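Dear colleague,

Following up on yesterday's call, I've attached the two folding results inline so they're easy to grep. Please treat them as preliminary; we haven't cross-checked anything against experimental data yet. The first protein's sequence and structure tokens come first.
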Amino acid sequence: MKKVLSLLLTLAMVATFVGCGNTQEPAPAAAPTEEAAPAAEEAAPAEEAAPAEEEAPAEEAAPAEEAAATESYDPVTLNIAYMPNYGSLWSVLTAKEKGFFEEVGITVEMVEFADGPTIIAAMESGSIDIGYIGQGAHKLCINGRASIFALSHISNGDALIGGPGIAKVEDLAGKKVAYSSGSSSETILVDSLNSVGMSMDDIEAVDMDASAIVTAMLSGGVDACATWSPNSLKILEEMSDATKLTDNMSFSDKTVSLASWIVMPSYAAENRDILVRFTKALFKAMDYAADDHYDEVSEYVATQVAQDYDSVYAQRGDADWLTGKEVSEGAANGEVEKYYEIQKQGFVDAGAVEVDPVPAVADYVMLDVMVEAGQ
């Protein structure tokens, strides 16, 4: 999947822009012994001196290492906002369950939300420290309401789904279509309509909560819907006459669907060290989770969101699950910045960017945190 996404993202960019060393003590001990061999009288003092030279640093090193482990990080507890799906939780729960947050002095308190805009609102109120967002809410970051400090993954979990009798996007004309405003649900709906020369004015758009969309679609209360995984998977599974009209990959020639970790700009300015620590643990978890540990991670997620394992495991195909190493290296070589640049241009073209001038990616994406966390 990563190779396919890399190729598609390359096309998207063209279309858019034309430990410390381990001291081994036997080695230094051997050298004096060999030099002392011709003189037996000198060898004895050398052998006696060697333990003294080796033991003294060893006795001092242990407390120093212990001090580093206990004093490097001031303990901190963070309120973390997430959405109840694999994509939102795959890395953060792995970091929690595998003890990676504990290694950097962080305790996380997990708080569930329905969508990105609601998470940002909670962060603005001060009840949430760090949050996860999908594609749609990134426009709020571009507009200055939040700062991005870590790329999570490249998503393919959003979908526009038509009910009975709706086989293509054009069939939505005059139909009742459910979506969640300000989220990736709205983004894929608008992109889908624009792709065939339509707009929101050509449909009866019904703005509702993500969970309500599923109920409305399954009950026939709406003709179509735009939503994300696992809601999209549930609808397609339970409605044999439903049709997936588009998903994120449908627009890979002009945009890229990203998921990210965010904070308030003021928090970012005052707590950069905490963000580096959080991201360091997150990257370690991403390296582990992306390495074919989907079954284990699905268990973590299923427990957290009280869903059955099979439905969570089915979500493992919703994205290109990047490793922390890939993100850190991409932030250093410019690849991650290009992803966010493509994304930003998509929002500009859609008229979703309200600030003038349009900010540079580096103004709202903390690439330096990603680079440092990977070192």
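Below is the second protein, in the same order (sequence, then structure):
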Amino acid sequence: MTTDLTRIGEKARKEPKLAFTSLYHHVYDVDNLRVCYGDLDKGKAVGVDGVTKEQYGENLEDNLQGLSSRLRSMKYKPQPKRRVYVPKPGSIKGRPLGISCFEDKIVEESVKRVLEQIYETIFEDSSYGFRPRRNQHQCLGRLGETIQQKRVKYIAEADIKGFFNHVNHEWMLKFVQHRIGDPRIIRLISRMLKGGIMEDGLVRASEEGTPQGSILSPLLSNIYLHYVLDLWFRCVFEKQSQGEAYYFRFADDYLACFQYKRDALLFMNQMKSRLAKFNLEVAEDKTQCIEFGRFARDNARKLGKKPKEFTFLGFTHYCGKTMKGHFKVKRRTSRKKLNASINRFTDWARRSRGAQKTSEMIRSARTRVIGHLNYYAITDNSNKCSSFLHHATRSLFKWLNRRSQRKSYTWEGFRHALEMADWPTARIRKDLNPCRRAEAI
């Protein structure tokens, strides 16, 4: 099956305009479904039926044969997704997620494995989100390199308002049909999009949107924005720009870099019109056009102002200098993300003090801190990482000492315990200096 999927990718690469008319048999292939079952995480939240991976696996072969049969005969219908909310900075209710039933997750993974082979051959290099062998650090590194080494003077930053909730299903299916000519695949995707959402015991029909939390949702979103924005920028807008123009997108967050202000303002105007055509709009509070680059600091100081900054992928980007006085793009953890990380760690420590043993709690805390540092410990951001590490350490000390008075730690004993647990330091883990690009050891 892996070999067959690889061949699909090779054919898609060789024939970029081909619409594949026979793909559905890969989706219901039992061997493929079995691989998808094995790849799914057993610790993920369950859907409306409450079935876990272990429960589904108790009678795995019969379940997979039955699923394959229903898919083959087009009798398979996805169950509604369970609506849950996870904490989101600046939101009281939180970020809505749609949790699929375990069997639906298998089908979503199967469809994703097939479609990904085709679309990875046509996606633009400017797209970094939710793609194999691509991540935020690569996007940040390429962005910094572009600003420092190209003729960039202006940044147009944008964010789509409620993108995942406003994806138009009709447009989505039209976009998919550019490369997928198998009507059974189209019908299955349509059923997935319109499967409905269950919240507070009530099922609501899905007339638009692709729920976050779904395995297939990131790929479908990339397909949607590939046609709405990525191709439009490269094939239309970039050709009418008077100067250099560059574009970067991670999921629904994107920005563009320009040599001339005229192009930046034109992009902001035409981009909004382009989104409106597909029932989308920008979040005005997260959208701006600023002067940014090697001359921005001096120009701002001449006017008695500070050079402007922008936030992208959790980092505030600002105009800095190297030790030799040359312009350099510097980054620090955004204030909102840093406060959210500290609050999230503190809340976890408070809730865990009575549920875990001391040694287990310290190990869990270490894992959480390392997870934060693995993302945020990049070039020029050691101060903010040290700040997070300081607050996390003090919070852990505080809540460990709330467990009982007899087992309270002194700072000396606490530091010894952290040393024994190999408590992390705020060293740089990702070197994003374009002149010294390598992963720090």
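For the second protein, one point worth flagging: The longest strand covers residues 91-99.

Best wishes,
A.L.
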